[in-house]
Amino acid sequence: MLIGLVGRPNSGKSTFFKAATLADVLIADYPFATIKPNRGMAYVKIKDLAAEFGKQSNPREGYVKKQWRFVPFELMDVAGLVEGASEGKGLGNEFLNDLAGADAFIHIVDVSGETDCNGKPAQNYYPGNDIKIIEKELDLWYYGILMKTWKTFARTTEMQKTKFAEAVTKQFSGLKVKEDDVKEVVRKSSLNPEKPTSWTNEQVLKFAQLLRKHTKPMLIAANKIDRPNGKKNYEKIKEEFDYPIIPCFAEGELALREADKAGLISYIPGEEAFEAKPKPQDAFRSAGHLDGAQEHKHATKFLTLNEKQKSALEKIKEILKEFRNTGVQEVLNKIILEILQYIAIFPAGAKLEDSKGNVLPDCYLMKKGSTALDFAYRLHTDIGKSFIKAIDVRTKRAVGKDYALKHMDGLEIITK
Predict the structure, then answer these.
(1) What is the DSSP string of 76-116?
(2) Model pTM?
(3) Could you tell me the residue ranges of all domains in the chain?
(4) Dist. CA 309–CA 234, nearest whole Å
(5) Cβ(222)–Cβ(248) under 8 Å?
(6) CATH code for the part of the protein at 2-37+78-247
(7) What torsion do the CA atoms of 305, 310, 313, 319 make, to the nearest 10 degrees?
(8) What's the confidence (pLDDT) of residue 153?
(9) Which of 332, 410, 327, 404 is CA-nearest to residue 373?
């Protein structure tokens, strides 16, 4: 699964990407700081199933913090998009080619109004314009793919009685478009798939737009919500657009994750608060390890917050009080679990451990509606072919191959 970050230059995409992945990428206050796409692992935050059994997971991929498990998926940050990208302006052609394999988009919008559509300094710029520009360029991208061969394509489809959905799917073979997607879009559009030669350019564009929205769903991260006009602009775009929109403070999230990684604070992504770790002197004193003479010598071995860091964290704390969290983890969870409708499933034997004693080492993200048999095949083709039944780790109840998986299920697959 691949999620693409889209947005105009200097909107904070790279900051969001680094906050989500802690990958080493360039963050700069000028347009097109990102040229080549960056890829890294971001994480869905779910409850740790092992905690229900008084244990803690040992993930093969991802990680655990307290009672939370973080399950990885791939995130991609591409070059900023400017108006005219679908015609090759800026880094448009590269941008769109990079996005072809994405399952969904997170659109990073700078709601501060302090930079314009080209990422240059501005005053009171309306960020809703960015949403319209990105929408337009993505629609024209799909429209351009159709129009490259539309006349020949439409005529051949009618003359040879080729199924329209099948033909369109081939046309969009590199963009993860399926026949069922095309059929659903045709149904919604009220267009006649048996007479595509009768479609006007406006109707083709309408079809392209609907196909883009259906096959590349999008969520808006209203970034830089901490800036003076951030909240006001966020409220305005919420009223104007029907996309899911989440207020976001990517810079604050990045600061918290890096401080946590450095051992300066204790922070769980997506939480409403964080804790400064005790000074090393206090920790050693409480354990009886330091006297006054030794204090300075030992303190120099530990990282501590300086006054500038303390001040920055206090500002972040105030923003967290108002918005509950920085929004970054909320965006990641919503795009995977709600918009794409994936669920987390654990392969779980009776003891929850693999042969090496690792507790629930694996967790799989699967499409809602998947069955126990689908899960068996996901584990291994041979397991799917030899499937007999599955055992629910909580209830110990046996379920058959048609059992509809539920989010956070733990199943042991029994084979022949």
Answers:
(1) EE-PPP-TTGGGT-TTHHHHHHHHTT-SEEEEEEETT--B-
(2) 0.88
(3) 2-37+78-247, 250-336, 346-415
(4) 28
(5) yes
(6) 1.10.8.470
(7) 170
(8) 87
(9) 404
